[in-house]
Specification:
mainly alpha
Length: about 230
């Protein structure tokens, strides 16, 4: 990972988050509160600022060290948003559309970071993401490439949205757009005794309710044979 001339690259944020998804409260007050947690406009500005700093560094040809620093900072800004998005979805009952809009923007920003003409290699950037429930139980942890955390979050959204009565195709269409459908489905438990997913990473699904496990199972079956579609 690029060094940073005495400055430590951004490594994400550890936040306390709830584990059990709540029923969506459709009242205007609840929707407003969830929107405040998502904080889309402000987070979008932060990501734009970090991306602009990286692009400026690349234009100035600052070199591997400096450009790597700004690249890590931009990845870290995305990582910082994920715990709040997870909280908004699982605790505050945020509307699926605003959560999906946010994670799409995260992925678009990650793609823009990758496409920067930088001497630093996007694939070498490691970003820490820790999410805990309200009792301090670890929900998800990663200290690897940002894509790992983004794929895990997409899985959470895919499963949670179905439990809330949304068609799975709404999320799957986005996964197809980013060409990560198989990678996201690889993070779903296929057998009760599995310790890791098909991608070789820990599953991080211990916080799931029975309905979430069933939704995940149905999604895999639907993808495989297009027969089990209880939520569509």
């Amino acid at each position: 990972m690029p060094t940073t001339k005495g400055r430590k690259p951004h490594t994400g944020t550890t936040l306390t988050r709830p584990a059990k998804p709540q029923h969506v409260d459709g009242s205007s007050t609840a929707v407003a509160q969830a929107a405040q947690v998502v904080n889309f406009a402000n987070r979008k500005r932060i990501l734009a600022k970090k991306l602009a700093a990286l692009r400026k560094s690349c234009r100035n040809a600052d070199g591997w060290d400096q450009e790597g620093y700004y690249m890590a900072e931009a990845c870290g800004a995305i990582a910082d948003w994920l715990p709040d998005l997870w909280s908004a979805m699982m605790e505050h009952g945020a509307q699926v559309d605003i959560v999906q809009k946010s994670i799409i923007h995260c992925c678009e920003t990650a793609k823009a970071i990758e496409k920067c003409d930088s001497e630093a290699d996007f694939d070498d950037i490691e970003t820490e993401v820790d999410i805990k429930d309200k009792d301090g139980k670890l929900i998800f942890q990663s200290a690897s490439h940002l894509d790992r955390a983004l794929q895990w979050f997409w899985r959470e959204l895919l499963v949670f949205s179905q439990v809330q009565g949304h068609p799975r195709t709404a999320v799957l269409d986005s996964l197809d757009r980013f060409k990560i459908t198989d990678k996201v489905l690889a993070t779903i438990r296929k057998n009760p005794d599995d310790v890791d997913g098909e991608d070789g990473w820990p599953l991080w699904d211990q916080h799931w309710t029975e309905d979430m496990h069933q939704a995940a199972k149905n999604t895999v079956q639907w993808r495989n044979n297009d027969k089990v579609q209880p939520y569509d």
